[in-house]
Amino acid sequence: MKEQEILSDESEMPLRKLLLGQQQQQQQQQILLVQQQQQQQQQQQILLVQQQQQQQQQQQKQQQQPRLLLMLVLLLLML
């Protein structure tokens, strides 16, 4: 009986190592996924900021256009 128990313990060791290795791989993959999600969130935030900047620039252009028209009309009137 004792010899069989020792043999079964030894035969289980590679299996345990395999299982441990798989668990570690899964944990690493989960960590990678979390890092990718964080990167995506950062990229989305950057995109949002860029969109806000573009909107601000467009608003500034729209505000400048009427002023330019007014200046042109005034110049023409002075002639």
Total helical elements? 1
Radius of gyration: 34 Å
Distance between the termini: 116 Å
Write the H/E string, N to C.
H
Which residue ranges are poorly predicted, with pLDDT under 50 across at least 5 consecutive positions? Answer: none
Question: How would you explain this protein's 3D organization?
Answer:
With 79 residues, this protein is mainly alpha-helical. Helix content is 97%, strand content 0%. It contains one helix and no strands. The chain has one helix at 2-78. It is rod-shaped. The N and C termini lie far apart (116 Å).
In summary, what is this structure?
By secondary structure, the protein is an all-alpha fold.
Layout of helices and strands, plus pairs?
Elements (H helix, E strand, L loop, with lengths): L1 H77 L1
Features:
0% strand, mainly alpha
